[in-house]
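Final report, results section. Input specification for complex C-07:
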Amino acid sequence: MLFVAKTRLFPSPKFLPQAANLGVIVIGELALIGWVVNNASLKGVYPGLAEMNPTTALTFIVASVAFRLLFPEPVSWRRQWLRRGLGELMAAAVALVGLLKLCEYAFGLHLGIDQVLFHEQLGLVRAFAPNRIGPNTALCIALLGLALALLDVTTQSGQRPAEYLTLVAGLISAMAVLGYAYGMSVLFSFANLAPMPLNTAMALVLLCLAILSARCEHGLMRIFIADSFGGELARRLFPAAIVVPVLLGWLRLEGERAGLFDASFGIAVMATSNIVFFVVLLYWTAASLDRSDLERQQAEQARIETEERFRMLVTGVKDYAIFMLDPKGRVASWNEGAQRIKGYTAEEIVGRHFSRFFTPEEIRDDKPERELRTAEIEGRAENEGWRVRRDGSRFWAHVVLTPLRDDVGKLRGFSKVTRDITERKKAEEALRAAEEKFRVVSETAADAIVSGDSQGNITYFNKAAEKMFGYAAAEALGQPLTLLMPERFQEAHRHGIERYLTTGEAHVVGRQVELTGRRKDGTEFPLEVSLASWKTKDGTFFTGILRDITRRKEAEAALEGHRAELTRSNHELTAANKELDAFTYSVSHDLRSPLRQIDGFARILQEEAAPQLTTEARHCLERIQEGVAKMGRLVDDLLNLGRVGRKQLSWEHTRLNALVKEAITELEPETQARTIHWRIDDLPAVKCDLGLMKVVFVNLLSNAIKFSQQVDRPVIQVGHKQVDGETVFFVRDNGIGFNMRYVSKLFGIFQRLHRQEDFPGTGVGLASVQRIIHKHGGRVWAESEPYKGASFYFTLGQPDRSESEVSTALGGANWPLIQ
Amino acid sequence: MLVEDNPSDLELTLHALRHNYLANHIHVARDGEEALNYLFGRETPAKVAPSLKLVLLDLKLPKVDGLEVLRAIKSDPRTKVIPVVILTSSREDRDVVEGYRLGVNSYIQKPVDFEKFRETVRQLRFYWLLVNQPPPLTLRHTA
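Structure output:
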C-alpha cells in the first residue's frame, strides 16, 4: 500500500529465471545436436569460432534440469525430498565435471572428462584443442554447479554463498562474451588453453542470470524487484550501466578499426556519449524518483495525518475503552477512555495480558482465552459481564472484540472496545425491581387495577379485577375496556377517550368517580374509579383503580334512612322543647295565680272573719296557707331548674372565693342564730357561668347548713384538690350525712333522703346542681356515711375518670375533716 | 288604671289597694283591648292621658297582651310619659327584658304570699304616688 512500484521490470519474478534457464537448455541441446549432425554453426556460433564441447553441452542440459527441479521454493523436505534430492545430485554432478576438468589443468592429469562424448570427432592431435573445456569454462561450470547445489543455503550472517559463486562465474562468462564482441581473444581464452566458446559463454551468462534471479526475494537480487527508490534506481540504471559502455566501446572499436577516426577522437566521443547518455538517464531517473518521492511524501503526510486524527479520535474517546491487543492477548495500545474506565495508565498496562481485566472466576474458567478464540474464529466477539478495575472494584461492561488481520490474512492482534454500562445495568435492574414491585402490589391489591391503551383496549388486568369482573386476565387482555361496562355507558366512554386524546380535556382522568361496572355474567354493580393517564412513546395509557362499592352504597342508603329519621326526631324534639317551654311559661304564670288566690282569700278570711272562727277553723286556715307556701316554693324551684336547663352558658373568668362569699351572704337568713365554722380554702379562678355557679354553691352550702344544724359544732369546708391534673372542688360538712345505699337517688328531681319534718326541702336543689355541673362538662358526686358528715365533689373539666377513683384518691369519705 | 284579666287577682289587687286607701280613683280594664280603647278611644287621649297617674299592667291578657299595650302607650307621645308598672306572675327573663326594652318604668312579680303581695302594693302606691315626682301636667299636654 505504501510503496507502489512505478515500473515492473518483468511480468513476474518467475519469468526471468525460467526464461534464462530455457535459454541454457536450448543452447546446450543445439550444441549437442550440432555434434550429432556435425554442424559447425550449431557447435560454435559460426564456423571458425571455438565449438562447445559436447560434455559442456550435456552439463548445461543437466544443470538446466537441476535448476528446474530446485527452482520452486523449498517448503518441506519430506514432501519434496525426491525432487530436491535429484536436483542437488545433478547440481553436484555439474560441479564435479567442472572440478574434474580444473583438476586436469591444475595437476596436469589427463582424465579425459571432456572427451567422453564424440571422442572421434574431437580428435586427439592436440591436447588443448579449442573444442575442449577451457579452464575458465571449467571454473564457471564448477562454480555454478556448486551454486545450484547451495541455492537455498544461507549462512548465519544472512549471506547466500550461491550468489557470490554465481557472480564470479557471471563475471568470467560476461567477459568472454565481451571478448567475442570486441574481438579480443584474451577475454575468452586463457594462456593458449582451450577458449570459452561464444555459445558456452552465453549459456553460462544465462545460467548465472537464472540462478541469481531464482531467489530474487532474498539475496542480492532483491534490490531489483524492491518496491522502493533503490529498486527503481537499480532497475533503471543497471541495464544501462552494463549495456551502454559495452555498446559505445564496441562502436568506438569498430570505428577505429574501420579507420573512421583515431584513438583519441574515439575516446573523446565515447566519453562524451557516456556523459551525455548517463546525464540524461540520471536526470530522467532523478526527476522520476523526485516525483515519486514527492507523491510518496504527500501520501505519507496524508497517512500520518489520518493516523494522527484517528489516534486522537481513539485516545480522546472517554466513554469507551478502546485499545488493542497483540495476537497473544497482551495490551498493545491504550486510550483515555480505557484509563478512565479501567483505572490503569498506559505505562502500567501496555504489554500486560488482558486477562487481568477479568474476574478471578472467569480467569479460572479460561474466559479470556476463549474470548480471543471466539473473536478469531467468528470475526467478532461481543458480550457483557463483570470486569475488574485497577482498584479491584467491578463494573458491568459491554465488550466488543474484533480480530485485526493484515493483507494476507495473518492475525495481527485484536481491537477491543469496552463500555461501562453499570449505570444502565442498574437502571435496568431498578426498572425490573420497580416492575416487580408494581406487579406484587397490583396483584395483591384488593382493588381491581385495569390499564388500557389509547385504542381503549385492555393492557393490564390484575387478580382483583379477575375476581371482580369474572374474566380471566387472558380473556380480558386486548379486549376493549367497554367489555367491563353496561352497553348504555359504552358510547359515552368512547367519546370520553376520544375527547381526552384530541383536546386533553379530562372529565374523569385524575378524579374519583362512581360508575357502573358489568360482570362477565352480565350483572351490574356500582364502582368507584380513580383514573390516571400517562404518555409514552407508544401513546397514551389509562389506568383505573376500581373498587366495588355495592356494600358502601347499601350502607349509605341505610345511613341516609337513619339520617332522615334523625332529622325527623330532631324536629320532634325541637317541637317538644318548644312545648315544654310554653308549658314552663304557663306554669310560671298560671300556677301561681291560683296559689295567690287561695292564700289571699284565706288571709282575708282569717283577718275579717276572725271573731267568728273557732280555733279549729283558724288552724285549718293556717294549714291551707302552709300548703300554698310550699306549693309556691315547689313552683319556684321547678322554674329555676327549667331555667338552668334552657340557659346558654356564658363563660367568664370567675374568682370562686368571691362567689362562695356571695353565696354565704345570701344564706345568712338560714345561719342566723347559729355558729358555723367556715373553712374556705383558697380556690382558683376558673372559667364558668357565674350566675349558675352561684346557684351550685348556694344549693350545696344550703344543704350543708341544713344537715349540720343538729351538730354541736358545725363545720363546713369548701376546698379543692388536684387529682391527676384535674381540679376537684368539694363542699364538706360534719352533719348527719346519708346512707350510701341511696346515693343514686341523691341527684334525682324531687328525691329526698330525709323526712320533711326533720329537714325541709323540695328535692330540686341537687338536681339543679347536677344539671349545672353537667352543662359545664363536669361531674358531680357525693360521699357520706350516716352521722359522719357528707362530701359533695364536682369538677368543671371533661369527665374521663370514674367518680369512685377520684374520691379514693382524695382519701375517701372518712377524710378527717375536723382536727 | 289597673289592667288585669284574672278576676281573683283583680279582686285581691283591689283588696290590697283598698287596704292601702287607694281604691277610689281606679279604672279597671279586663283585657288589652279594653285598655287600649280606654286610652286611645274617640276623644279620649287628650282627656284621659293627663289624668292617669299610673298604669298597673298584667302581661298575660286575652286579645291584646300586656307587652302590646305597653308598646302602644310608650310609642304614642301623648301617653308615653305615663308611668307604667308591670305587675305579673311571670319572672321569665325574656318578659323582663322585653318590658324594659319597651320602656316600662318598673317590673314587679306578684308574690304568692298574700301578705307579701299586700306589702308590695303598699310600697308601689307609696313610691309612685307619693315619693316619685311626676312630670308637670302642662308638659303632658304639650308632649
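The beta strands of chain B are 2-3, 28-29, 55-57, 84-88, 106-109. The first strand of chain B starts at residue 2 and ends at 3. This concludes the modelling results for the funded period.
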